[in-house]
Structure formats: C-alpha cells, structure tokens
Amino acid sequence: MLQPEKIIITDDHPLFRKALLETLKENLPNTQWLEAETVEGLDALLAENPDTDLLLLDLKIPGAHGFNTLIHIRQHFPQTPVVVISAYEDNDTITKAMSYGASGFIPKSTPASTIFEAITQVLTGELWTPETLTEQDIQSSQSQIAANVASLTQQQYRILMMFAEGMLNKQIAYDLSVSEATIKAHATAIFRKLNVRNRTQAVILLSQLDISETGFPQELK
Fold first, then answer.
1. CB within 8 A of 96, min separation 6: which ones?
2. Angstrom distances, CA of residue 221 to CA of 5, 79, 143, 190, 217
3. How is the beta sheet containing 32-36 ordered, strand by strand?
4. Do residues 127 and 98 touch, judged by C-beta distance below 8 A?
5. What pLDDT, on a 0 to 100 scale, did the predictor assign at position 88?
6. Helix (H, G, I), strand (E, B) or coil at 106
7. Helix H or strand E encompassing 10
8. For residues 207 and 202, what is the distance between their CA atoms, to the nearest angstrom?
9. Which residue of 24, 94, 174, 216 has the fewest C-beta atoms within 10 A of its own C-beta?
10. DSSP 8-state symbol, 167
11. 3-state DSSP call for residue 49?
12. Is the pLDDT of residue 221 over 70?
C-alpha cells in the first residue's frame, strides 16, 4: 500500500483523536494528519485540502444531523473516501452509512490493529465493515430523502443546517454576509428540491435521516 499523503480525522473527543492518531502514526509515519471537531471546521479543511486521501468521520460531531454530513460530503467531495468511526455499532446504522456512500464503518470499540487494517483496505479501493455485517445487509441505493438532500448546493445545505438550528432568516443573512432576500431565494430553492412547503417541513424531513439511539452505549450518550 502506498503511504497516503493526507488524512483528516473529524471527532469532537480530543482523547479519542489523540489515541487514534498515536496508533495510526506508527504505521503511517509520512502521512500529514489534519483534525476537525465540528462540521464547520471539516468543511473548511476539505475546501482547503481537496487532495485529501481519506476522511475519518464521527457522525455525532457538533453541527451534524445524523447522516446528513456524510451525504453532503459524498456529494461535494466525491473524490475523498469516507470511513465512519462511530460509537454506534448496530447493523441498521452501519447499513445506512454504507448506503449513503461511506467506504467503511469502524465501531469505536474496534481494536487498534483492526482499525489500521480497515483503513488500509479502504485506501486500496475496497470497502470495510465489521464481520457481523453481511453483504445482504448492505442496501444498494440511497433513499429518496437522502438523494434530495444530496442535490443541495453547499450554500443551500449550510442554510438548511441553520434552519435546523432554529436560526431566523435575518440571523442567517448576517452570518453569511448576504441579504435577507438572498436567504429567502435560497429557502425557496431548498423547499423545491426537498419537495416541502416550508422550513418546518424541511427540518422534519431532515430529522428522518438522524441516527437511532438503538444500540448506542449509555456511557457515550
């Protein structure tokens, strides 16, 4: 396997990031490691580093809404393979992540040596999932909701996430340095693409792509 030049780790738990980095650096000493803790930070890193060889992504970072971050990344940065590293270990979550474009899914309980093996397999162009998941479990296509979310532009997706945070058009316009009329125009386009009538319906639809709490370790909630 060729040494990857650049890998991004996105996780909001510093101790986990540190432990993962220490393990992987031993095997990949020549790789440049970039770190992000939030969706906003991740977007900035991907924009600045389009040549990233691999993204290791926790689904529950600040600013994320379930699988939406994964869907968005696969749509706008299709050249970057994504491996989800998550405390969720149920087959339903793993199956959905793979169907939404992940190249691998590694539970956080996975031994360090196996994590490296999984990453190596993905870097060679293969998929990796836990042995408990069979090929029959992996869905072959995205849901219509996911496809609609994936059709949003980066700016539309950013505004949709702000809707989900409960921000008003005026607040969003200020944060994005655009007019309120521009936000309203984007909102109309978002509603059309998602096939909804208003922001409430859009947020409800978005919640359907959230992650179930089933099988989530209590101590990590």
1. 67, 139
2. 34, 32, 27, 32, 7
3. 32-36, 6-10, 54-57, 82-86, 104-107
4. yes
5. 87
6. strand
7. strand 6-10
8. 9
9. 174
10. -
11. coil
12. no
Query: Mean of the per-residue pLDDT values for the chain?
Result: 85
- Among residues 219, 34, 7, which one has the least CA distance to residue 109? 219
Find tokens 């440049």 and name the residue.
32
Cα gap 144→194, rounded to integer Å: 9
Q: Among positive and negative, which fits the CA dihedral 171, 174, 41, 82?
A: positive
Query: Amino acid identity of 125?
Result: G
- Distance between terminal CA atoms of the chain? 36
Please tell me which residue, 137 or 11, carries the higher pLDDT value. Answer: 11
Phi, psi of 106 (to 5 degrees): -120, 110
Q: What is the pLDDT of residue 181?
A: 94
For 110-155, give the DSSP string.
S-HHHHHHHHHHHHTT--B--TTS-GGGS-SS--HHHHHHHTS-HH
Q: Which residue has the tokens 């992987």?
A: 24
In this predicted model, what pLDDT tens digit does every residue of 11-45 receive, in sequence order?
Answer: 999 998 998 898 888 889 899 999 999 999 999 99
Question: What does the pLDDT read at residue 201?
Answer: 85
